[in-house]
Specification:
heterodimer, A: mainly beta, OB fold (Dihydrolipoamide Acetyltransferase, E2P), 2 domains, five-stranded antiparallel sheet, two-stranded antiparallel sheet, 1 helix, 33% strand, globular, B: alpha/beta, Peroxisomal Thiolase, Chain A, domain 1, nine-stranded mixed sheet, two-stranded antiparallel ribbon, 15 helices
C-alpha cells in the first residue's frame, strides 16, 4: 500500500439538509434518502424530487455496478497536477439510485484504480475514505 | 402542413407574423487580448447594424447573455447603458450553451407581445484573455453538483465523457466516429474566415492526440475563445425596408432531461430530452429531417452532435457515427453539418455562431473566398433553403432548437 498524501482535493459544499448523510459517512455507514413510499433516490435533498415529500433515510448495502466511467487525465484544478489519471464513475447501486464516485484500488480509498482495470458493468463496493477529520468520501473499489 | 397539437398551432400563429433574422455579425475570434467584453459587444453590434442597414436608434429591444469576465446581474441593461440605448424590452438569458437559440425565442416572444419590434440579440466575451483563475475554477465547477459530483474530481469534459462512453458501449460506436466529426468540421473551418483552427486534420491525427478525459482527446473538445456575435430579430414588415433578405424563424423547440449528469436516467432519456427540441422545432415548421439543407448542430464535444442527430431523427439510434464516417456531414454530403467549423474548430460562443452561419447559408453568403486577407474559402451549401440549429446547456441538460428558412412560414 502506497503512503497516503495529505488531502488537497475539493471538499463537498455542505448544506444543512446534507448533514445526516455526511454524519453517517463519518461513522462509515452508507445511507440513502427515500421518498414517502420508501423508494430511495439520489442525490440527497430535504424534500424528495417529484413529490416534495419529507425525506427519510435507509441503510444501503454499498454494492453496485459501474454504469459508465471517464478516465480523467486532467483534473478540475491545480490540486490534481502531477497525479496519475483518476477515474470518475457513475455507479448503479443495488438499491436502485445511481451516484457519482471515484474508483480506487485499496480499502483506504487510495490510490486511483488503474484505467485498464475498469469496465462498464463491473461490480463494485463502497470504501470509506476519511479525507479530513470532518469529511469521509464514499469511494468505490472492485467487488471481488 | 400537418395539423399539429394546439401548442404547435400557437407557435405557428406567432411565427406567421414573419418573425425573422434581418442582420447578423461576428467579430474576429480567438485570442483578442486588446479588447474588453463590452467593447467586443459594441463592436459586433456596429457590424450587425451595418449588415441590416440600421441605426442603433432603430433597435427597441435588447437580449444579451452573460459574461465570465464582467460580473453583473443585469447584463442586458448594463450593455444598453454602455451603448447609450433606452430599449423598451430587455432580457439577459443564461442557460449555458442553449442561450443563443433561447435569445431568438425571447426576442420572438417580445415581438409577439408588442414589447418591441426590432430586437438586438448579442453575445460575446473575452473569455479566453480576460478570465481570472478563480473565474476559471468557478466555470469548471458550474456544471457539477457541489456536494455529490465536484469532490470526485469531475470536469465538464469528463461529465460529457461519462455519457459518451456509455453511448459508445451501448451502440458499439468506435473512437473513429468521434474523430470523424472533428476531421469533417476541420475541413469546414479551413474555409471560414474567422475560425481559430484553420488546418484540416485527419481521423488519425485526432486518434493520436493527447487524452484529456476518455473518450476525448484534446481535439475532441471545444475551444475557449474571445469574440462576439449578434443577430437582429424583427418582423417581415420591418425587414422589408432593411438591407438584407430576411431569414425566417419557422420552428422553435426546447427540451430538458436533467441538470447534473448523475441525474441523467439513460442515454435514451438524454437523447429524447434534447431531441424534443429539434423534433418540436421541425413539427412547428411543418418539415421533416429529409427537407433540411444544412445543419448547424451544437458541438461542445465531438460526441455532442452525434446524439443530437439521433435525437432530432436525422439519423437512426446509434447510427450517427456511421453517418458521419460515411461523409454525409461534409460539404457536398447529404446534410452538411457545422459548415463554419463549430465550437471545436471555429470558436466557442455557445450557439451564436451556429445561428449566424445558418443565416449566412440561407442568404447564400457563406462563401468567404473574397476575404483574401483571412484566406477564406467557399463553405456555401448550394441553394440552401432550410436549416436546423440548436444549442445545449450543461451536460446535454437543456436544449433549444430553431428551424430557419429562406421562405416565410406560410410558404414553408
Amino acid at each position: 500500500m502506497s503512503e497516503k498524501p495529505a488531502y488537497n482535493k475539493p471538499l463537498p459544499d455542505l448544506r444543512p439538509e446534507d448533514a445526516t448523510f455526511w454524519e453517517a459517512l463519518k461513522e462509515h455507514r452508507f445511507i440513502l434518502p427515500c421518498d414517502d413510499a420508501g423508494k430511495p433516490f439520489w442525490y440527497p435533498r430535504k424534500y424528495a424530487p417529484g413529490t416534495l415529500s419529507h425525506t427519510s433515510w435507509t441503510d444501503a448495502s454499498g454494492n453496485g455496478t459501474v454504469y459508465t466511467y471517464s478516465t480523467h487525465f486532467i483534473g478540475p484544478s491545480k490540486a490534481y497536477k502531477g497525479d496519475p489519471p483518476h477515474i470518475v464513475a457513475l455507479v448503479d447501486l443495488d438499491e436502485g439510485p445511481r451516484m457519482m464516485t471515484i474508483l480506487v484500488k485499496d480499502e483506504d480509498g487510495y490510490p486511483s484504480l488503474d484505467p485498464e482495470d475498469v469496465t462498464i458493468g463491473m461490480k463494485v463496493r463502497i470504501v470509506f475514505d476519511d479525507v479530513t477529520d470532518e469529511i469521509t468520501m464514499p469511494k468505490f473499489t472492485p467487488a471481488a | 402542413m400537418a395539423e399539429g397539437t394546439p401548442d404547435v398551432k400557437e407557435a405557428r400563429r406567432m411565427l406567421a407574423k414573419g418573425i425573422c433574422i434581418a442582420g447578423v455579425g461576428e467579430t474576429e475570434q480567438g485570442i483578442i487580448s486588446d479588447r474588453g467584453s463590452f467593447e467586443l459587444l459594441a463592436e459586433v453590434t456596429r457590424t450587425t447594424l451595418d449588415d441590416a442597414g440600421l441605426q442603433l436608434s432603430d433597435v427597441d429591444g435588447i437580449v444579451t447573455a452573460f459574461s465570465f469576465v464582467e460580473s453583473t446581474l443585469m447584463h442586458s441593461t448594463t450593455l444598453a447603458d454602455y451603448m447609450g440605448m433606452k430599449p423598451g424590452y430587455f432580457a439577459s438569458v443564461a442557460v449555458g450553451g442553449a442561450t443563443a437559440p433561447l435569445m431568438a425565442v425571447q426576442a420572438a416572444l417580445a415581438i409577439d407581445a408588442g414589447l418591441a419590434e426590432c430586437v438586438l440579440c448579442v453575445r460575446g466575451d473575452n473569455t479566453r484573455s480576460g478570465i481570472s483563475s478563480s473565474g476559471m475554477i468557478a466555470m469548471a465547477r458550474e456544471m457539477s453538483h457541489g456536494a455529490y459530483e465536484a469532490p470526485f474530481g469531475l470536469t465538464t469534459i469528463g461529465g460529457y465523457g461519462l455519457l459518451a462512453q456509455r453511448y459508445m458501449y451501448e451502440h458499439n460506436v468506435p473512437q473513429d466516429a468521434l474523430a470523424a466529426v472533428v476531421a469533417t468540421q476541420s475541413e469546414h473551418a479551413a474555409l471560414k474566415w474567422n475560425a481559430m483552427l484553420r488546418d484540416a486534420v485527419t481521423v488519425e491525427d485526432v486518434l493520436n492526440d493527447r487524452w484529456i478525459a476518455t473518450p476525448f482527446h484534446a481535439m475532441d473538445c471545444s475551444l475557449v475563445s474571445d469574440g462576439a456575435a449578434a443577430f437582429i430579430v424583427t418582423t417581415e414588415a420591418r425587414a422589408k425596408n432593411m438591407k438584407k433578405k430576411p431569414v425566417y424563424i419557422t420552428g422553435i423547440g426546447e427540451g430538458f432531461s436533467h441538470q447534473y449528469i448523475s441525474e441523467a436516467e439513460s442515454v435514451a432519456s438524454v437523447r429524447d430530452g434534447l431531441g424534443r427540441a429539434g423534433r418540436r422545432a421541425m413539427e412547428v415548421a411543418g418539415i421533416t429531417p429529409q427537407d433540411l439543407d444544412v445543419a448547424e448542430i451544437y458541438d461542445s464535444f465531438s460526441f455532442t452532435p452525434l446524439i443530437a442527430l439521433e435525437g432530432f431523427g436525422i439519423c437512426g439510434v446509434g447510427e450517427a457515427g456511421d453517418w458521419v464516417m460515411e461523409g454525409n456531414a461534409k460539404l457536398g454530403g447529404k446534410l452538411p453539418m457545422n459548415t463554419h467549423g463549430g465550437l471545436i474548430r471555429q470558436a466557442h460562443l455557445g450557439a451564436m455562431h451556429h445561428i449566424v452561419e445558418a443565416v449566412l447559408q440561407l442568404r447564400g453568403e457563406a462563401d468567404d473566398s473574397a476575404k483574401t486577407e483571412f484566406n477564406g474559402g467557399n463553405h456555401q451549401v448550394p441553394d440552401a433553403k432550410l436549416a436546423i440549429t440548436n444549442g445545449s446547456g450543461g451536460i446535454l441538460a437543456a436544449t433549444s432548437a430553431l428551424v430557419l428558412s429562406s421562405e416565410p412560414p406560410s410558404a414553408a
